[in-house]
What does this fold into?
Amino acid sequence: MVLTVNIGNTSITIGAYQEEHQLFCAQFHSSLTETADEYAIRLQALLSLHHAEALAVDGAIVGSVVPVLTGPLIDALHMLYPVRVLTVGPGLKSGLRLRIDDPGQLGADLLCGVVAALNLAQGPVVVVSADTAISIMAANARHELVGGAFLPGPQLSLASLIQNTAQLPQIDLAGTDVPPVLGTNTAACLRSGVILGTASLLDGMARRFCAELGSETTFFATGSLPPSIRAACRTPLRYEESLISDGLYAIWQRNRK
It folds into this structure.
């Protein structure tokens, strides 16, 4: 079994793979105050929860955008398993050529998402990854990562709007229903603006990406982008929940020797 660890600002995603098969993919909240011992306990409990604690661990790979958490998670893995732990960064083969100004600034999650997308579709591909922010990264038909864009995520935009206004209520973006554009009360107007506004923004960006990459571009989505926003997009989005974990595993396979 191979463990993948994707460390994000909001959550840490743990994947387990065996012979090309994903055993499970699960999350727990990121915590800057927890020690390596505490993370080891959480990892062990997570494997037990998914009935994988008895399986031998052959290796692990970590991708992180939170440097302060990278060390404790690697230490936790070493406490539990006497295996080599790879870290996504310079020196690991990804199968991608990076055509950006400073490859050292590229987040591990962005790289892994594109690697996994190119295992599922011929290039060009665009990966829309949603967390606190929405990142949009593109690779061309020659499997070159050529750039992307960042923008605020819908939950962040909504929280900022509510915090800085006096009479706007909290609303739930969950569910798959696409609201009408003409809201008839305050909450409905908020849902229309956030859901349809974000979808329209993504559709507009998709058109611009297609103008650069070609009309045959395949769009993937992963992360916490609500189903209602995905349903409201006119651009076909192929949603893959474990895309980044799959990319981590693909990179481990390239570097396991």
Observations:
- The chain has a mean pLDDT of 93.
- Residues 31 and 69 are 8 Å apart (CA to CA).
- The radius of gyration is 19 Å.
- The helical segments are 36-49, 67-80, 108-120, 154-163, 186-213, 227-232, 243-255.
